[in-house]
């Protein structure tokens, strides 16, 4: 019998991370909400959950850097990625209509992504810590002039009705999530074609350039590079890279063996099959 996986996400039920997890897994899992990403990572470290599921990048806002920082800090291993289309909805108690709404609560990013709709309808946006948390708040308070911007699934969860769908400024709005586990895994049977790694260079002239030239000499295609500060070493940086290819390929292994002589520290943070953008 297949074991039901306990998968942690940040937020409460109805959060976009929760909705994305449902879409990605379909069945045979238990979703475990955590108030912060730090709480989620700590739970995985203590084996209280089997997998973690976190957002790492949004097509409009950019990187969710705190989560990539945690992935590096804990040394966990990404095994899959999932792209989730963000569709902001305006939800309110069943007795309200759109013309009744004077205030709307949501996460600051969601408010910013829907500011044209709010201006059109003369609605004041009020920041809240979480989209689903805002929906729960509206449901409990049952106000006469307030709504929440959140995911569609918050409706049945918190007894709210949808006043308007797809209210974001642009319909091209995707968030990329990573599924990860506690330790590096053996090669999957599924074809892997993407690698995530991070490294720290020494404080020497041309150190980063030599690393990039090494990737080039093996004709490995870098699809993303990001630098993040090292908390314990002011104005020093960790470089996060994403590359096309399969980690267990001999070419990759040879490249990594050379890289280990060129950097102060290197970690493989994931290897998996690329996710696809939903239509």
Describe the structure.
The chain is α/β, with parallel strands linked by helices and 279 residues long. The chain folds into three domains: 91 residues, Periplasmic binding protein-like II (D-Maltodextrin-Binding Protein, domain 2, 3-Layer(aba) Sandwich); 76 residues, D-Maltodextrin-Binding Protein, domain 2, CATH 3.40.190; 79 residues, Alpha-Beta Plaits (2-Layer Sandwich). Helices cover 28% and strands 33% of the residues. It has nine helices and 15 strands. The strands form three sheets. Strands 1, 2, 3, 4, 5 and 11 form a six-stranded mixed sheet that branches. The protein has a five-stranded mixed sheet with strand order 8-7-9-6-10. A hairpin with a 3-residue loop joins β3 and β4. α2 packs parallel to α3. It is elongated and about 65 Å long. The model has no long low-confidence stretch (mean pLDDT 92).
List keywords for this structure.
3 domains; 279 residues; D-Maltodextrin-Binding Protein, domain 2; alpha/beta; 15 strands; single chain; six-stranded mixed β-sheet; Alpha-Beta Plaits; elongated; 9 helices; five-stranded mixed β-sheet
Summarize the entry for a quick read.
This protein has 279 residues and is an alpha/beta fold.
């Amino acid at each position: 019998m297949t074991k039901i996986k306990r998968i942690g996400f940040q937020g409460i039920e109805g959060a976009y991370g929760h909705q994305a997890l449902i879409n990605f897994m379909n069945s045979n899992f238990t979703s475990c909400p955590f108030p912060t990403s730090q709480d989620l990572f700590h739970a995985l470290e203590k084996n209280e959950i089997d997998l973690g599921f976190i957002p790492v990048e949004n097509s409009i806002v950019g990187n969710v850097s705190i989560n990539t920082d945690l992935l590096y800090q804990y040394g966990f291993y990404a095994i899959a990625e999932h792209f989730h289309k963000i569709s902001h909805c305006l939800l309110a108690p069943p007795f309200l209509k759109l013309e009744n709404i004077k205030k709307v609560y949501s996460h600051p990013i969601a408010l910013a992504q829907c500011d044209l709709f709010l201006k059109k309808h003369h609605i004041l946006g009020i920041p809240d810590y979480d989209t689903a948390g805002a929906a729960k708040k509206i449901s409990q308070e049952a106000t006469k002039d307030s709504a929440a911007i959140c995911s569609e699934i918050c409706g049945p969860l918190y007894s709210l009705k949808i006043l308007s769908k797809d209210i974001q400024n642009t319909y091209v709005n995707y968030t990329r999530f990573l599924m990860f586990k506690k330790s590096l895994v053996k090669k999957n049977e599924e074809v892997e074609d993407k690698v995530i790694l991070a490294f720290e260079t020494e404080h020497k002239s041309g150190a980063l350039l030599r690393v990039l030239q090494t990737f080039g000499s093996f004709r490995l295609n870098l699809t993303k590079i990001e630098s993040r500060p090292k908390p314990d070493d002011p104005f020093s940086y960790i470089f996060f890279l994403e590359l096309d290819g399969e980690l267990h390929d001999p070419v990759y292994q040879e490249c990594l063996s050379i890289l280990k002589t060129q950097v102060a520290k290197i970690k493989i943070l994931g290897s998996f099959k690329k996710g696809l953008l939903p239509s």
